[in-house]
Inverse folding.
């Protein structure tokens, strides 16, 4: 089991509501770090939010890595070279 999943299993167990609330707080702190251009806090909060998402995904048997590969390979296949030029 991955470290963040193990950590949040100890901290939250099946209390998914509190894990979700923690995630929302981390997202707010990410926004604040972006506004204040605080890169170290931004990096720490993105890491914590990602760890919480991994924990929540684990609790619901969602394979994030596999789903990202599947979903974004399909999305990339639908992007045209013109879409890239417009950026």
């Amino acid at each position: 089991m991955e470290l963040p999943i193990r950590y949040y299993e100890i901290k939250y167990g099946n209390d998914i509501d509190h894990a979700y609330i923690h995630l929302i707080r981390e997202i707010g702190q990410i926004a604040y770090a972006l506004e204040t251009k605080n890169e170290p806090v931004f990096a720490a909060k993105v890491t914590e939010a990602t760890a919480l998402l991994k924990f929540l995904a684990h609790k619901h048997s969602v394979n994030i890595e596999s789903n990202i590969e599947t979903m974004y390979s399909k999305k990339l296949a639908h992007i045209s070279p013109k879409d890239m030029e417009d950026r």
